[in-house]
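Re: folding output
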Amino acid sequence: MKKFSAYLVILFSCSIFSQEVHLHGNFTIRDFFINKDTTYYIEKRHVRISPESGKYGYFMGGYGLKIFDNPKKNEVITVSNELINTVCSVRFFNKSSNKEQEVFYYTEGRAVDALHIEQLGLIVLSLSDKKIIAIDYKNKPIFDVVLDVELKRIARRIAYRGDFLYYAVDSGEIYKHDLKSKHGKILFNTKSTVSDFHIFEKFLIYSTTDGNIVKQSLTTEKQERIKLTDNFVLNGLFIESKLILGTFDGSILVLNLETLKIEKELKIHKRSVLSLKNVDGEFYSSGIDKTIRKWKFN
């Protein structure tokens, strides 16, 4: 594993874009987080820690999907799919002892997507058996499944805003689910396979696997769209009035939410972007090309 500090500076669209390889791993880096000067990242069935400082990392049992920082409890939380086809796990590791503390197993399906709602003490899983569950871990090692939603299709993407859980299913519908009342409804039917979406107060931005990026009003029928050529969005990060979008071909798009125009297209990764983070105003991304890259634009 090597770390490079030299910057590449490129003149791009009349602005300065710079990037560096923050970390080079041995395998695809599925997800990561950065706490101060320490990077925790997923490689296959392990969490790696850089710089190592005597700690090589944690064994997750299965193949890692997501990793979350839980700083108030000094914990690392991972979501992985075990080697048994229908089993996934949520594991809690103590940063100080470098040991696994507790683990929750779900035995009826694999995790497709996951999110951590830290303020509620919840891990939410979208599952291959067409369910979404929310696990309350505040009293661990006792885990309480406080939400169990049965779906007609698998939900590939889930998100949280306010008191509501949002999810996009394979048939194209995006649902809004009240975590308090536990009632859900269809927010919008995209009639497409959604690869990523973001909810705002008055509109919805969603991306599809055929390359469309769509801005849909939530109060009227107004819709705007642009189409990517031989590419599609995998994930996104909201900052100020823009969406930073990671794509299948490894590029990063800077999308103006007001105009729905791509302001910049940055060639960051050689292959697909799997995770995006904003760490104290600096951007980081990981991908299939085995790197975590640090980058910025003016």
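--- second protein (sequence, then structure) ---
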Amino acid sequence: MVKIIYGIPLQWIIIPGYLLAIILIWFNDRNLLAVAFDAGGVATGPMAVTFLMAISVGIAATIEGRDPIIDGFGMIALIALAPILTILILGIIIRLKLRKKEEKKMPELKLIISIVRKGWGDTVLNASCEAGAEGGTVTYGRGIGVHETQKILGIAIEPEKEIVLSITYSDNTEAVLNEIIKAAELDKPGNGLAFVVPVEKVVGVVHRATEEPKSSPNAVFEEKP
């Protein structure tokens, strides 16, 4: 109706509208695309065309300077465009909400990398598990630091190292790291080091996302919905 009242040319609405629909396609789920474009066909059914076309032609005839044929032309195309845009925009909103829900469901993860002397890997691994880590990986490597220079007959020796990789949840990272420092005596020179790296994405850790929250001690006094 705005097109008829203000005399807006059809191409100023129909071209940007369908360009917007094409852009929204790239951000929507494929299963929703058929629903969106079928909705446009449903909206232009016999009842809608009969009443809306009659109203459009009647309004154009009553407004001075408006031609019912020219100004009423393209109304069916606009009627079909409206539900397409509506469903595509709704699909993006739903997709964003689902993404936020997934982000809230999976807590932030951190990777603790501990480089310790050979033979201390199991000690660090056990300490991290006792502090709340749910596992870890021990690998081997070689390296030397300023406090570890050793020579035999003038030949420098590279001490062997054990590298412990532990993925923890952010709410437990500090406790696990402190326990590793105590167990491996990392506060003393030459015993190794540990550092924390943020983890962007992890595949395979699903148990915390699916486990039900533990009931509180006062749950028996809480009213059930």
